[in-house]
Amino acid sequence: MGKPRRRAPRDRTEGDGDSGGRGENDAEAEAIVGSERGTNVGDMVWAPSAAMATAFVLLIRLLSAGTTCVGDCDETYNYWEPLHYLLYGFGFQTWEYAPQFALRSYFYLLPSVTAARASEIFLSLFGQGNDKPQIWLGVRLFHVLCCTLCEVLMYLAVKQKFGRRAGGFFLLLSATSAGMFVSAPALLPSSSSMTLFMLVMAMWLQGQFSRAILVAMLCVFGTGWPFVGVIFIPMLLNCAWLRLRRGTSFAEGLGAATASATWAVICAVAIASLATWIDSGWYGRTTSPTFNILRYNVLDAGEGRGDELYGVEPASYYVKNLFLNTSVAFPLAVVLPLLALPLYPMADKVAKSELRQKLLMCSPGLLWLAIMFSKPHKEERFLYPVYPSIFLAAACTLDIIVQAASELVEKFRDDARADRKLLPQAMAMACVLFAACLGMCRTAAVVRFHNTPCNVFKFVYYREFRSYWDGPQHLQASEMMQPVRLCVGGEWHRYPSSFYIPSEKIEVSFLRSNFHGQLPQPFAPTDGTKAEPLQSFNDLNVEEAERFVALDECDYVLAARFRDYDQYSTRASQAMQDILKTKEQWHTVLSHKLLDPEFSDPALRAFFIPFVSERFVRHGFLSLYRRVGIV
Questions:
Q1: In this structure, is the dihedral angle defined by the CA atoms of residues 596, 601, 606 and 609, taken in order, positive or negative?
Q2: How far, in Å, CA of 73 to CA of 80, rounded?
Q3: What is the pLDDT of residues 309-353, one digit of tens each?
Q4: What pLDDT shows up at residue 339?
Q5: How far apart are the C-alpha atoms of 220 and 205, rounded to whole Å?
Q6: 532: how many CB neighbours lie within 10 A of its CB?
């Protein structure tokens, strides 16, 4: 890396609006100044225009919104259910939303409420304003549109900062990854943090620190998940360092750094105050969910509380999930510092500056991963915020390898032909395309093997409940009846949300199962966000017996059954066993294939290979039963 690279002239304007148009005079200041690297005519990297990149990413993200189901019960019960309550007045409440604990933020849900109302208005133009699964889809479309915008902005900033090659690698790795496909439409603070992080990165790469700080504070204090603030530490330190160095004197630099720090404090206080005011109104008392969740997970963690109550996993859990969701991008990202540090002493001044910039811009993801790996409680969704950083680090690694290899070819083969110089780039592109293929195979597996709950509940909504219990021809009869009770036992975690329940006439209840933690309960019908919960709640994940009903109180039951291929018997939930004992009382409404992970090939259920996976993947059945005689 000893030769200086040919570059287009630099734009010496910060573009932040708070710099007075000053340029940076040292190499380190390039961390906030964009540059467009010159490229050869024979460049093999696909680095599309903004319009083409937007169309490419948007198509994939729209597919993700329309073809994936809710993948996490925490997303269902902690976000979709409260959102449903705010819209329709009924839904499940978790202990985190109980006024005495107040760990979750209603402020975070407000954009989704707006998206749901807008979807309702749009659907009403076609006479479908009360079609709740379509409104659910509308909220997901809102999230993927935001994600697409921020993803493209980050791509354009990477392309401007590090060149077409790094930008193209980033776009392909990010757009085709299974992790982004699953996380983009999710209603989770970690997913929203990922979207906002991409926007911050786009601004940081272009030196727009004031805007980046504002968005970072919105992410920390607006999502109700303050832990994500860790990933903005490198950006804030970079801002402070550059402000200190940009003045003609130390006093001037200190003044600039102090101004940026003051701006950060103003943004944090303003957003936190607004969120506290709104959340306090919903909870009926002055409270801050942001502070409450920090206290529960950090200050009170030694008192038998904290996230470890919900399970602990070894480090291999994250290694496996990172490979599934980012494929080869994860090892490439980890290699970046190991590759850049040995090359640094051999690089010239310009190359050293670029190596420093790449390490700095990729440090948020590496910092977050180091912290997450050290925590006993691990969740796949905790990785969402740094997927973009992982793809950026992987793109930078490939960019460095291609540049170093090309220079070696030039150094040792003065007569090297153009095709030989392109060989390293072709190999890097092959690596990216291999990652894209793995991402698509993983995405296909998610869509094919993990959508059963949504498919079942769509049938339940449109064909069973809505056509009969909520139909106009049965309106008078249904108003005279008690609510119809749909019961779930061990399949409670597959429930996609009350957006698949037409009205409060259908009441969802829980049967006892092998799960002995705390389950949610319905919001109180009046002032549910403020009122005392109908049943007890605790913050120790202790089972509350009040949640359960008996099978004879159920009108419908959702249950799963799997075959024991080694014993030629069946594995059934307790609810299914009870139904089989009294099968003459139950009518099977629907049975849908459900992935059986225990007897399926791990690799072929994780990555869908056409004509192969189906031979090695086993299925059970997720079935809906209706009590005989209720219709």
A1: negative
A2: 10
A3: 888 999 999 999 999 999 999 999 999 999 998 888 888 888 899
A4: 92
A5: 20
A6: 11
Q: Please tell me whether residue 48 adopts helix, strand or coil conformation.
A: coil
Distance from C-alpha of 185 to C-alpha of 137, rounded to nearest angstrom: 9
- Helix, strand, or coil (residue 34): coil
Are the C-beta atoms of 556 and 484 separated by less than 8 Å?
Answer: yes
Residue 128 and residue 116: Cα distance in Å, rounded?
A: 13
Other CB atoms within 10 A of residue 368 CB: 22
Which residues, 6+ apart, have CB-to-CB distance to 293 below 8 Å? 103, 104, 224, 225, 226
Angle value at C-alpha 155, between 153 and 161, nearest 5 degrees: 100
Q: Which of 275, 65, 36, 293 is nearest to 157 (CA)?
A: 36
- CA torsion angle for 400, 401, 407, 408 (degrees, to 10)? 150
Helical residues (DSSP H) of 125-163, grouped into ranges: 132-162
355 with 344: CB under 8 angstroms? Answer: yes
Burial-class residue 535 by CB neighbours within 10 Å (0-12, 13-18, 19+). Answer: middle
**Listed residue (29, 1, 2, 3) closest to 11, CA to CA:** 29
Give residue 328's identity as a one-letter amino acid code. V
**2-38 per-position pLDDT tens digit:** 443 433 333 333 444 444 334 343 434 444 344 444 4
Give residue 424's pLDDT band: very low, low, confident or very high (50, 70, 90).
confident
Which SS3 state, helix, strand or coil, does residue 99 take? coil
Distance of alpha carbon 300 from the chain centroid? 27
CA distance 4 to 407: 10
Where is 589: in which H helix or E strand?
A: strand 586-595
pLDDT band at 298 (very low <50, low <70, confident <90, very high): confident
Residue where the block lists tokens 């109700």: 224
Q: pLDDT tens-digit profile of 432-483?
A: 999 999 999 999 999 999 999 999 999 999 988 876 655 544 444 445 457 8
CB 104 within 8 Å of CB 292? no
In the predicted structure, residue 581 carries a pLDDT above the cut 80 = yes
What pLDDT sits at residue 569? 54
Average pLDDT over residues 486-508: 94
Residue extents of the structural domains in the chain: 27-43+139-448, 451-515+550-631
At 77, is the pLDDT very low, low, confident or very high (cuts 50, 70, 90)? Answer: very high
Distance of CA 308 to CAs 195, 197, 469, Å? 27, 26, 42
Cα–Cα distance measured from residue 19 to residue 24, given in angstroms and rounded to the nearest whole number: 10
Q: Could you say which DSSP state residue 469 is in?
A: I
DSSP 334-399: HHHHHHHHHHGGGS-HHHHHHHHHHHHHHHHHHHHHHHHHH-SS--GGGGGGGHHHHHHHHHHHHH
**Nearest-angstrom CA–CA distance, 536 and 57:** 46
Cβ atoms within 10 A of the Cβ of 510, count? 20
- Confidence class for position 629, pLDDT limits 50, 70, 90: confident
- Greatest Cα-to-Cα distance within the chain, rounded to the nearest angstrom: 90
Q: How high is the pLDDT of residue 7?
A: 38
Residue 220, C-beta contacts closer than 8 angstroms, at least 6 positions apart: 226, 228, 229, 232, 268
What are the contacts of 346-349 at 24+ separation with CB within 8 A?
A: 346/1, 346/2, 347/1, 347/2, 348/1, 348/2, 348/3, 348/4, 349/27
